[in-house]
Amino acid sequence: MSVLFSLIVIIVVAAILVVAAFAFIKLLQLIFPDAIGEGSGRVSGWLEWFRNSIVPKFVIVGVLSIVMLVPFDMLRGVVSERHGHYRSVLQDISETWGGPQQIYGPMLVIPFVETYTTLEIITDKEGNEKEVSKTYEKDKHFVILPEQLNIDYQLQDDLRQRGIYKSLVYTSDIQLSGEFEIPDLTPLSKHIKTIEYDKAYLAVRLSDIQAINEISPVTWNQQSFRFDSGLQLAIHKGSQAQIDTTAEYSKAGRMVRNAVESTSSANHASIPPGFHAKLSGINAGQPSSFSIQLNVNGSYGLRFAPFGRVTDVIMKSTWPHPSFQGSVLPNSHDISDQGFTAEWHIPSIARNYPQSFVLENTSVDIGEFQAGVDLVETVSLYSKVTRAVKYGILFIGLTFLTFLIFEIGAIRKRLHIIQYALIGGVLALFYLCLLSLSEHMQFLQSYLVSAAICISIICLYTWAATRSFFRAIIILVLLAALYTVLYALLNLEDYALLVGTGLLLVVTIVLMYITRHINHASVTDAVPASEKA
Predict the structure, then answer these.
(1) Which residues are paired to 202 by β-bridges?
(2) pLDDT at 125 over 70
(3) Among 355, 375, 395, where does a domain finish?
């Protein structure tokens, strides 16, 4: 509505200025009838020149073209507002369906207990000091990452609609499999009291566990163990150690940061929620195989961390527009209209954290190295409309120049400045029509309908104003060509600058050819002979 209001204001102001100018001239003619009137000499000659010459019209139309930047700037504001509302709806859908999924794991966690003996000097009631030996126990966790990690993704894209907006989402079947090598923890520390293999568990971190549709029990050495919620990885605040899962997630400039969260306990801090499975039959020195299957919802894209000493990932999707992201790109990929397939082979030497560590003694950033894909649309609706508005001043200028060239060849069939303003208003309304229609139909269809409406209005108005069917046909061809070139520019992201520059060169050459016979006399015919002398 603000754009329509600005267009109406511009037209009304232009009309008021024209009426005021004519009223001022009539007033001067009444006050100074001898100096200002028909055949009154110098002043009358200049008034006639201003009225009939094409030069002042060029100046006025140029000023009007600059004024037309105001509604175009307001149009950009409307597009930005609608785009912001669209992103808000996408965020709401993402929160209910599932956000960008990041998977870290699995990690094998083995608790152990260390004992420490210290000597303390205490003072009894009588003031005597004596040395006392005290023993402390500390619970710690040894984290082991898999020797071989295989991740198999099967992504199925889908669209979720809320109101007039649609959001791209996906459902993914994820299979994790591989092998752990469990070392002997006895040499780890001379303070080890017990190694609690019977309390070992497998932990997997998923960024949005609420979006899990189904998860199967983990298969560990041919045995099945049920998953429970929570990672069960906690450390005392007094320790400097932590596992940091901070990660940056991009989607066309979108950054999603998953940071370490605090639990409700006042004495502990833990990494974000995930799920874990308590295991049995853990033996040092023996390799152990595992397999996990789950089905999750997500949006925008997904990431994985290469936890294995060797990590092999296969990703297949039905979405044909992937954007591979992260610290490393796939070793191979195949993209077609039916979807894409990508494969990664990542050795552990590519990252900066070890294959095993004591959680309480080590600061590990497991999110510093990740890879994955974003599911993107080639060019979004609002970015296309925004780019189209940027070429609006070019449309205004070329259309006004065409009408001015008509006036050069036909002095008696000139357009009024209000008519120029109305034509500019219709050209601006094209973008408002395009925005409103494209939210309800395909962009190409809305573009064709908007262009047909605006071209028809301008051509009929040209025919009515100039009484020339030939000139109306020329305007029809010009505008049709302009809108065709504009649509090409909107779809040629990589070559938009080249095509736009070529268009300007062609227009310049055409204008130079058309105006090649214009001379000084042709634009000063209305000046009296006395002034020419």
Answers:
(1) 108, 277
(2) yes
(3) 375
What pLDDT, in 10s, does the model give residues 473-520?
Answer: 888 887 888 888 778 777 776 676 777 777 778 777 876 776 666 655
Does one domain contain both 234 and 354?
yes
Angle 233-237-238 from CA coordinates, rounded to 5°:
125
- 272 with 357, same domain: the answer is yes
DSSP 494-523: TTHHHHHHHHHHHHHHHHHHHTTT--TGGG
272 and 305 in a single domain? The answer is yes
Range of the domain at 481: 2-84+381-532
- Write out the two tokens for 405: 């060239």
Lowest mean pLDDT among 66-70, 291-295, 372-376: 66-70
Among 82-86, 168-172, 427-431, which stretch is predicted with the lowest mean pLDDT?
82-86
Tokens representing residue 256 in the block: 């999603």
Tell me the longest C-alpha to C-alpha distance in the chain.
129
Of 375, 406, 428, the position where a domain reaches its end is 375
Which residues, in sequence order, are CB contacts of 337 under 8 Å at separation 6+? Answer: 320
- Is pLDDT above 80 for 340? yes
CA angle 180, 185, 191 (to 5 degrees): 155
Structural domains counted in the chain = 2
Q: Is the pLDDT confidence value at 291 over 80?
A: yes
Using CA atoms, how far apart are residues 488 and 353, in angstroms rounded to an integer? 49
**For residues 138 and 511, what is the distance between their CA atoms, to the nearest angstrom?**
86
Length of the chain: 533
Rounded CA-CA distance 190/168 in Å is 55
DSSP track, 291-343:
EEEEEEEEESEEEE---SSEEEEEEEES-S-EEEEESS--SEEEEETTEEEEE
